[in-house]
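Hey, sorry to bother you again with one of my protein questions. I've been puzzling over a protein and I'd love to understand its fold better. Take your time with it, there's no hurry, and the full record follows here:
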Amino acid sequence: MTTTQHLTDTELAAQPAAYWTGLAYEALISFTRARQAELGHTQPGFWLLRNLSPNDLSADGEGMTIPQLQEAMSSYLRPEDDLAAEAEVLLERGWLTRDGDGRLWIAEAGEEARVGLKQHFPALRGAIHEGIDDADYVTTLKVLRQMILNAGGTLP
């Protein structure tokens, strides 16, 4: 029996893409979240900062409620992500504030934290991309995008 570690190119070509993309997704999320935990924060917490920052994903810099943030992040939140609990941690740190209508706002300390945390991502990307040249990476993404379209999906 051939193990998946020693598949020929012909055998690899017959493998189901969904199986491998699922494995890749889980491995990449686990790796990313573990590195972020080592830095003292969480991926969902960082996403809160990004979505509330007028210097990042927030189009208008306006505060948002937890349901609004969940909607904004719906394409990448995982079932176990609890934005309300994550927000409480960031409120305690002084990175977020909450107004009387329950909207969360990024505080100056939160913006500083977002900028500081973002500085670690080139090293994280470098670790994930080690041994993969950019041309191969681009080809992989083009193939995945075409598979999405072939399967009736839409691209963001």
